[in-house]
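#struct-pred

JT: dropping the chains for the assembly here, can someone run the whole complex?
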Amino acid sequence: MPDTLAPATFEDEALPHLDTLYRVALRLTGDPAAAEDLVQDTMLRALRGWGSFRPGSNARAWLVTILRNQFINGYRSRKRAPQAVDMEAIPEPPDLKDPDPEGRFFSELVDDEVVAAVDALPPDFREVLVLSDMEGLPYADVAEALGIPIGTVKSRLFRARRILQGQLRRYAEETGILPSGGDHQ
Amino acid sequence: MSGLPYDCEAVLDKLDAYHQGELSPEETEAFTAHLARCRKCLCIEQHEQAFLARLRAAGRDCCPEALRERILKLCGDPGCRGE
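RK: done, full complex below.
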């Protein structure tokens, strides 16, 4: 490493991730005003703790960790009630006998339907899905941000995707994109 | 490479690694070769792909400008800095 490298500034490292932080905050809190407060508190805490950031390490994962800790400490109880989900009822993968087994219906759903289904996931499942599948963090970064092993990230993600796929198929049936009932009777 | 060519079980097992781009060239070839022969696995792969693409496109809100400005102000305030 050349020793002439200028130290990265907080602005350079942290500000490019504001959109990601805001979207994650929105999905965690379910409320734009609470999401704004959460992001602002996160950035304030990150600024104060900037001395503990290791140059060259992953700023996005570091910021998400701070955001999630802030959320758990102060925001969790504000808006959301825990969702009741039957954890045993993990839908099966698509079957050739299903209508639209290739999932073309996914692209016909509107954003609000997709987001509502994500928001209805239990928190532990929602956060891995948001970070991995919506924000594109690698599994290792999700594991680091949430303080869980990569294997746990993968298993939660698997269940989260299946639950969400089942929910989106139900939306598609309710809205007439897919024939309702059908093979699920 | 052991385990090649892939059967249905191997393909389902590797589905996520395939979408994450984690398969080696040989594994990718075995994976796609199976899909070309097996309609059931092809459907499952297309279903997963369509689902993930829809999810990536959803909820792309950006940080509101007023919030960005408040944060820039914090950055410029020496009292907020811990160094």
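JT: nice. The helical segments of chain A are 10-14, 18-29, 32-48, 59-75, 111-119, 123-134, 139-146, 150-174. Chain A has a mean pLDDT of 88.
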